Amino acid sequence: LLEELSKQAVVSTQSTGEVKEITYKTCWMDAQDILSSFKSFKNNILFENMDQEDMLGVFSEHIKALELDFEDEKQKRHIKEKRTQRKNRDAFVTLLNELHSKKKLDSTSLWADLYPTINKDTRYSTMLGQPGSTPLDLFKFYLEDLKSTMHEDKKTIREVLKAAQFEVKSNTSYEKFYGVISADEKTKAIDKGNIKLHFLNLLEKAEQREREARREEQRRIRKRDLSFRHMLEDAEPELLHTDEWASTRERFEGESQFKDFEGDEKAMAKIFKEFVATIKPETDSDERSERDRKRRKHKKEKKKRSKRSPTPRDSARDSSDEDNRKKKQKREASPEKEDAKKKEKKAKKKSKKKKKERQESESEEEKTRSEKKVEKRGDKSDGGGDEDDSTSDSDISETELEKRRNKLLEELSKH
What we know:
mainly alpha; 19 helices; 75% helix; elongated; disordered N terminus
């Protein structure tokens, strides 16, 4: 009976349509105040016979139903808003595609340059204020998508340039390059910005090649000039400070250093003039002949070493070979030889030490001898003539005594 009364109460409440203020947020106390204000609720015998707990249970079920309806409605609104936002983003991307097809947008475009055009379109204004990606974000994503095909675009551009036999140099203009690329059907779908980026890359490589070529040419010229100067230094007869290039050039026409200049007379004359300026005037013929003799000796030794003048690389290789040879000899040396060397070093040190000690002892003896002489001279100044004779005799060296002794023996042998 209670269940039937509850059902009838709910049906009666929903059919009257008077309980409009009750929502999913309404509490039971507020709901009682709202219901008591309606006459249909007070005068209805069904509501009077219902217990308060039963009415609370019916109210709870009603609130739960309202909450479910609210959540469903909220979910529908959320889905609708998401769909609208996605449509707005798709519409903005369509705007970017239109600008790209009109060649107004490419992978090198800037937002500041395109903003005056984009700002006037409603597809941009409808996106303002909505959550998620902004128009600027979509613009950046669009440029990244365009640049992602750069690798494939490079291959196509290289094929077109190879077919047209076109080479990018440091002075090549973009208009000329783009004219060659756009003439081929393969490049119609390539983004204009990617074409420009690839042109800048090729232009940078061309400039780098030319810089390297200039450096290589400068190295070649320095090497050529140095070789020519060495030729002048080794000239026979020796050049004088008064010589001039016009009268001397015939002496060197057959030399390879002369031919390396390929007829550049100004460069050769300049080097010749600088070299002659360093020559000092010769005043002494003996000095000149001595220099000639040394020069001839140097040439002779040079020819013995090799028939051709070694390059710096050959010299470095020879020195490294010599070092390796010495290291190998050291490694292969027998232990006996090493012991002999060590013994020899020890013997040398020992002999040096003995020599030093001998010198020190001799200096000590000499010092003692000189002190004795000084003492004897002091005694001589205090004593008589006999003492003077004895002192003078003691001052005579052993060599002198030996000479006197030999002389006496000779005289005796004569008698």
